[in-house]
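Sanity check

After download, print the first record. It should look like this:
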Amino acid sequence: MEITQILKRPLLTEKISKMPIRNKGGNKEGKRPSKQGIRERYAFIVDMKATKLEIAYAVSKMYGVEVDAVNTSINKGKPKSRTVNGKQVSGFTAMYKKAYITVKEGQFIDVYGNLPE
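Expected structure tokens:
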């Protein structure tokens, strides 16, 4: 499977943007990290058949970073229904797979740099 087929698109949501940020100097007091620092986790929509090793390889080749960990989750489709020509039509939204990527300390991914204009 090619790299472009494994990574479909970055997932840019409010929840993802609130993921942990690593402080530059470290945090020994156990307090929440400050807003300044380096983001360490990113999320991508990936192919359903892609494994964690393939995802890590694709991210490292595409963005030039070292991947520390990959966590995946499969989101099942939700039931939806609508009325068409006076009849009720029901179905499901599409399933998709999310990959949460943790990069090595001091590295970051510029997800906005590779987006088409």
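If your output differs, re-run the checksum step. Summary of this record's structure: The chain has a mean pLDDT of 83.
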